[in-house]
Write a structure and sequence with these properties.
By secondary structure, this protein is an alpha/beta fold. It has one domain: Vaccinia Virus protein VP39 (Rossmann fold, 3-Layer(aba) Sandwich), CATH 3.40.50. 34% of the residues lie in helices and 18% in strands. The protein contains 8 helices and 7 strands, in the order ααααβαβαββαβαββ. A 7-stranded mixed beta sheet has the order 3-2-1-4-5-7-6. Helix 1 packs across helix 5. The radius of gyration is 19 Å and the shape is globular.
C-alpha cells in the first residue's frame, strides 16, 4: 500500500511539474526583454497563457502557426517549443521571416515554403488561395489567431483540409476569431468577423471532431454590431475560441 501511495504521489508530482514547466516557459516568453511593448500592452486582452493552456499546448509538440502576421503569438510559441518541440509557420509569413526567423532566440522558427498563391483579387473583400501543401506531416497542433475571417468558403476549405492532412491522428487544431452573429448576411460592419457555428460546421464536414470551446475572449460589451476596427470595440472584440481534433 505504501509503495502504491508513493507511486501515486510521484505521478501527481510529475504531472504538476510538467504543467508548471509550460506555465514557466510561457511566462518567461511573455517577459522577454526583447518583446515589444506594443505586444505586452495586449496581454491582458489576449490572455496568452490561459489561451494556450486551454488549447492544450505542451513544450514537446510539433506545432504549426498559420498566418502569423507580425508575430505576436510567434514570439510566445517559439521560445516555449525551442528546447523540446518543433515550431513552424506558414502562409503570410513575410514579416515573421524578415523580422524573427533565425534571429537570436528564434533560431527554431521554420518557415514553410508552401506552394499556395495567396492573393486578394481586385474588388474582393477576401483573399483567394490555390491548392497547396504544407510539406510537413504528423503535426501535434495547428493554431490560427483571428485569420479565418479573411477568407470566404472555398479558400477556407482548402486551408483547413491541408491542416487536417498535416496533423497526426489525435492532433489538435485551435481557432480564435472575431465573432459574427449567427447567420447574419455579410455587410461592411461584419466583414472581419465570422460565424462560429459556420466554422464548426465546416470543420466537421472536413472530418474534425469538435473538442470544445472557451469563453476566455467573450466580451459582453461587443454587441457584434460594428466593424472590429471601430473605436468602440477595437482591441476588445468578442472572440470565439474553438478546439478541434483529428480522429
Amino acid at each position: 500500500m505504501k509503495v502504491f501511495l508513493a507511486l501515486l504521489t510521484l505521478a501527481f508530482a510529475m504531472t504538476a511539474n510538467a504543467a508548471n514547466e509550460i506555465d514557466d516557459k510561457v511566462t518567461a516568453a511573455l517577459a522577454a526583454e526583447a518583446r515589444p511593448q506594443a505586444d505586452r500592452d495586449r496581454d491582458d486582452n489576449r490572455l496568452p497563457l490561459e489561451t494556450l493552456k486551454f488549447l492544450g499546448l505542451k513544450d514537446d509538440m510539433r506545432v504549426l502557426e498559420l498566418l502569423p502576421g507580425g508575430g505576436w503569438y510567434t514570439r510566445v510559441l517559439a521560445p516555449v517549443l525551442a528546447e523540446n518541440g518543433k515550431f513552424y509557420v506558414a502562409l503570410g509569413t513575410d514579416r515573421v521571416a524578415e523580422n524573427l526567423a533565425g534571429k537570436p532566440g528564434f533560431e527554431n522558427v521554420q518557415v514553410l515554403q508552401t506552394r499556395e498563391n495567396l492573393r486578394r483579387p481586385d474588388g474582393s473583400r477576401f483573399y483567394a488561395m490555390d491548392d497547396f501543401e504544407f510539406g510537413v506531416s504528423d503535426l501535434d497542433m495547428v493554431l490560427t489567431f483571428r485569420n479565418l475571417h479573411n477568407f470566404d468558403e472555398a479558400p477556407r476549405k482548402i486551408m483547413n483540409q491541408q491542416v487536417y492532412q498535416s496533423l497526426a491522428s489525435g492532433g489538435l487544431y485551435g481557432v480564435i476569431d472575431h465573432t459574427r452573429r449567427h447567420m447574419e448576411a455579410l455587410n461592411n460592419e461584419n466583414r472581419r468577423r465570422i460565424d462560429p457555428v459556420l466554422v464548426i460546421k465546416e470543420m466537421l464536414e472536413i472530418g474534425f471532431e469538435f473538442v470544445g470551446y472557451s469563453d476566455l475572449h467573450f466580451r459582453a460589451d461587443d454587441e457584434l454590431e460594428y466593424e472590429v476596427g471601430r473605436r468602440s470595440v477595437s482591441g476588445n472584440t468578442d472572440r470565439f475560441t474553438l478546439l478541434f481534433r483529428k480522429p
